[in-house]
Amino acid sequence: MQNSTSTQPSSPFQTLIHSGKPVLVDFFAEWCGPCKMMAPILEQVKHTVGDKAAVIKIDVDRNPQAAAAFQIQGVPTLILFKDGKVIWRQSGVVQAQQLITLLNSYSAGNNH
User: Fold this and answer.
1) pLDDT of 3
2) pLDDT confidence of residue 46
3) How far is CA 68 from the centre of its chain?
4) Which residues are known catalytic residues?
5) Exposed, middle or buried: residue 23 (CB in 10 Å: 0-12, 13-18, 19+)?
């Protein structure tokens, strides 16, 4: 059995998280109440940050290998990637302003 923590480098997900801009990934499940609360928050975040950052959602039930690769124990779990590295991670509902501030701090011109 392969011991790999990521999919092939040529996958769209790998390409996206290795781009220069921050990528916020929401690991969620359809049956999860708090995940449903995150949906409008993430829409607001996407609208506010525009193309400075990407915001994507991954359904852990449909993508169990991704959930396993990033050791997702509970949903929602949010992970922020930049240049292929995890730079922030939190489980539970996170308010829009906190996410906007976080993404703006890691967007182009604001390298940490």
Assistant:
1) 42
2) 96
3) 15
4) 32, 35
5) buried
